[in-house]
Amino acid sequence: MMSNANDIIRIALAEVGYQEKASNASLDDKTTNAGAANWTKYARDLAASGYYNGNKNGYAWCDVFVDWCFFKAYGAIEGQRIQCQSGPLGAGCIYSAQYYQQQGRYDKTPKVGDQIFFQNGGQISHTGIVVEITDTTVTTVEGNSSDQVRKNTYSRSNGYIAGYGHPLYDDTSEPAVKTAEPVAVPALELATIPSPVTCIVSLPQLKKSATGSAVKNAQNLLIAKGYSCGGKVTASKETADGDFGPTTEQSVKAFQAQARLAADGIIGAATWKALLTT
To answer: What share of the chain is helix, strand, coil (3-state, %, to 5)?
Structure first.
């Protein structure tokens, strides 16, 4: 079985919204028995499979969540090998980072599918999985983030980020989950330039829950085409709010259908091109 980053990303994204439990009950339900006692299905499953040097249920579980994703994808032995875990202390962020460092697979350059490590006071204190990258941001899925599995986005220059561990995936080709796909913008006729100019720009992939200026730009294009994005309406004119919510997602799907694109609600290269050229 060939391993690749997409396996881990798919599993991690499916867990977003899972809340840790107040006790050892309803561990498989995403929201039932929510609390802050660090009980999770992730620690339960890994304990049953002989991970670590003991049962980690009831303890901080950000690293446990990452390990569980690899376990679900590849099993205990292969999952730990791909994660570079050469010892029984993989439930701790500090030790997990050291395992990558010992194999020369830890640095400051992120790749999709990496294990990201965060620091507090110069010491590694938190971890997650890199699911998206742009030139300026890195998006993660993290366990034990506000007592749940959450998707977060950071500036790549954020001092909270300590570094990245690179798993031993078999398939090192570029994963399907990516952002910043190049889009060719058609020729622009400028009065001061005698011939057309073709500009190549990188635009981020956008989907529900994304925020920021890129979302606002996409919303402005949609609004100009008659689609609502859920922003404030003043003097019969809607204002883009930069929040990719349900209304924006529905408008993206409607535009994609009209443009004869896959109506998945995700603004990728083809949708950007259609927004800019139709």
So the answer is: 30, 25, 45
CATH number, domain of 217, equals 1.10.101.10
Q: Which residue has the tokens 């990728």?
A: 268
- Is the residue at 219 inside a domain? yes
Range of the domain at 255: 181-277
Residues 45 and 99 in one domain: yes
Which tens digits make up the pLDDT trace of 205-258?
899 888 888 888 888 888 888 888 888 887 668 888 889 999 999 999 988 888
Q: Put residue 121 in one of left, alpha, beta given phi > 0 → left and psi -120 to 50 → alpha.
A: left
Place of tokens 């031993």: 168
- The pTM assigned to this predicted structure is 0.62
Spatial neighbors of 209 by CB under 8 A, at least 6 apart, are 151, 244
